[in-house]
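The methods section describes the discrete structure representation at length, but only in general terms. Since the whole study asks how a given chain folds, the encoding of that fold should be made plain. An entry of this sort, consisting of the sequence and the corresponding backbone structure tokens, reads as follows:

. . .
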Amino acid sequence: MRLKVEVLLAAAVCAVVTVGAYATTPSWSYEHPKVLKGEFQIKSACMMPAEAKLSRLGMKGKEGMSKESDDWTTTLANLVEAHLKTAGVQLLPATDAGANAASDDEIRQVILQIEQKYGDIAGKLNKKPKDIAKARFTLGDEVALLPCAAKSDVLVFVEGEGKVLTGGKKSMGFLVGGPNSASNATLILTMADAKTGEIIGFARLSNAESFGTKFVDQSEQTFGKALDKQFNKMRIGLYLDKKKH
């Protein structure tokens, strides 16, 4: 019996390696019609502080990965910014005071208020993103208090959610299946009108891997193409004049 279990586990690990090699990143987005029609053009953006959270799931349960989460936050922020720049979008950090006389503390308070409002609607937005077309989500015109808003078309929120399975959990997950059978990660982008606070775009890019943590170590390879695909669909920057596909 023990030999049989060991053989099954070994087979599971081999299969996991094979499946993981072909992991893909499905993606989708919802936009306000005025964005798709080119009536609201996205050529400049104010980047809100990014936030990514990773957790490790093993045979003994779930635990946080604070350092890895911090590193992944930086990686995802850099990734999104790089692809926005490639799309011809001019970027400013939310902390940028520009010619405004606001102090760093005042700007941080505004950022905190906007993040709190975003947190209040994030769940509903994630549940019913189609309602973006009906203008049902907004952060309020307080967003215009950010100095960067005056020179930006949108505020951009970058979020990451990831779950990393340990070796034993991966093998067991392959045998029994279920939602915890593979490591996975999701990159979430939300765009709000920098003057009114109305949410005008929302995208999710998800990657599930049966082996390894490519989405952490190789975020560009994991999310890059899917990100460009959504920017094209949303007609961001230089994509505005390109033929949609």
